Amino acid sequence: MSRTNSARKRGQAMIEGALITLLLAAVLIAIFDLGLVLFIHQTFANSVRSAVRYGVVNPYDPTVIKNMVLYGQPTAGATGVFGLTAGMVSVARIDAGTNDQRIVVTISGYPYRFFSPWIAGAFNGRAIMASLPLETP
Fold this sequence. Notes:
Elements: H1 2-57, H2 62-71, E1 89-94, E2 102-107, E3 111-114, E4 121-124, E5 128-133
Antiparallel strand pairs: 1-2, 2-5, 3-4
Helix pairs in contact: 1-2
């Protein structure tokens, strides 16, 4: 009788181990997805802030500011960071010619792609916007 009982305990331990391993894998994938979302969001926020700063200290050119968001340089590159396209970036000069003029750079409609099987797919992120006053000499 102890032989059968020992075999049952081994089988039970194997089942429990498999379930815990499955749960651990799911948690690790979820942590990876969350980390990736945060990393992409921070990368885009930094790109927008850098582009606005560039636009404030250099002559206003919306194409160059958009290139700064997409490629990190004033000239066009091969591909945008994390699949960002020119259609997702908007540059505006608000209240031009007044003392309250500003440059506003916005990224909207960028996709997040998840690896987690229970939420697999792509979702659009919230808009990221930065604005700074523009002073003319």
